[in-house]
């Protein structure tokens, strides 16, 4: 599922559900997140703030993890993926922008989503679907480079995309989001050119 | 800190602490993990089983996450890192063996450690130290390849090691541990040879 397919599915379920009530709940949930942070976030607090019944929220989002993921997804900007005509530059910008974006509150929210997914099956499934969509989006960066003849046509673009996303997750989950341009460039160089001595 | 330095530190703190009592607690904790799983694991249950006071355990391990990490570390075999003389083969074996190892109970334990680290500062710090040690160990695989002239001497070995570990974490945290030899080989090929068309 691509990112826009994920959106589409979310909207279409939302439409069946009652889009205004759903957006009101997401707004309330977002406000609570900003005020109290992801750790303190609970369905109870969201219900109070949105003046909605807890059963209503649970019907739409079975767990706090799934609700947090939808808020995270709704906030996420589309500017992470660049298209500069150079894969190394695109990869450098991708890793810089994603880690920079996570330094704000969004990183805190996403960390909690990943943590919840380790004990909440519904959240795990939603996260897996979401991550697969993001992977396809990031893989497009590599597909464009194949089309330009910049990288080998037998590149596994999804795997390359996953390795980049995985590095970003690893930095987030070990609280090491600071990255300078040189390090981001080294990431890109090692991913694109590899490690092998040219022969 | 290397893996053996981490061991050393654990042992030396243990010696100051009372090594027998410490090992008895780790044994009890391990038994509970095997019987009930990581999700149900609590300091209370460990104290009961080890016939130790909760304050004793808390003095040595401030949180359940830090205790889980020590059990995980104590169990982990040294066979993950191969030295075949070919970096691509070493990387293939590393990713295969680590994911295979995690398919047993160890993966469940490590997932919970990573989840706990997102809300428990002591666990986060212990995990960061542990991961840095493992990274240095994995980087040795790349250092050997540099010494053999197989890869470029300006390779950032720690970064290459981190990208591998990050991929493994990502698979674990999204519950996608199954990997076949072809995919493991593709990982190794893309890491070592890169994506660029040779020119």
TrEMBL record, chains A, B:
Organism whose genome encodes this protein: Devosia nitrariae
Organism placement in taxonomy: Bacteria, Pseudomonadati, Pseudomonadota, Alphaproteobacteria, Hyphomicrobiales
Matches recorded under SUPFAM superfamilies: Homeodomain-like, Tetracyclin repressor-like, C-terminal domain
Keywords attached to this entry: DNA-binding, Transcription, Transcription regulation
Protein name: TetR family transcriptional regulator
A Pfam family recorded for this sequence: TetR_N
UniProt DNA-binding region: 42-61
PANTHER family attached to this UniProt entry: HTH-TYPE TRANSCRIPTIONAL REGULATOR RUTR, TETR-FAMILY TRANSCRIPTIONAL REGULATOR
Matches recorded under InterPro entries: Homeodomain-like_sf, HTH-type_TetR-like_transc_reg, HTH_TetR, Tet_transcr_reg_TetR-rel_C_sf, TetR_C
């Amino acid at each position: 599922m691509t990112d826009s397919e994920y959106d589409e599915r979310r909207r279409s379920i939302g439409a069946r559900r009652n889009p205004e009530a759903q957006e009101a709940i997401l707004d309330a949930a977002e406000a609570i997140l900003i005020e109290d942070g992801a750790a303190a976030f609970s369905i109870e607090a969201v219900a109070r703030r949105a003046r909605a019944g807890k059963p209503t929220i649970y019907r739409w989002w079975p767990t706090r993890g799934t609700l947090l993921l939808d808020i995270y997804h709704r906030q996420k900007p589309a500017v992470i993926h660049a298209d500069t005509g150079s894969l190394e530059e695109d990869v450098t910008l991708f890793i810089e922008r994603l880690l920079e974006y996570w330094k704000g509150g969004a990183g805190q929210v996403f960390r909690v989503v990943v943590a919840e997914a380790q004990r909440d099956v519904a959240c795990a499934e939603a996260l897996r679907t979401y991550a697969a969509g993001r992977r396809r989006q990031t893989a497009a960066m590599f597909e464009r480079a194949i089309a330009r003849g910049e990288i080998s046509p037998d590149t596994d673009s999804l795997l390359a995309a996953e390795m980049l996303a995985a590095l970003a997750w690893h930095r987030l989950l070990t609280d090491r989001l600071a990255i300078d341009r040189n390090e981001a460039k080294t990431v890109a160089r090692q991913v694109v050119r590899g490690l092998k001595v040219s022969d």
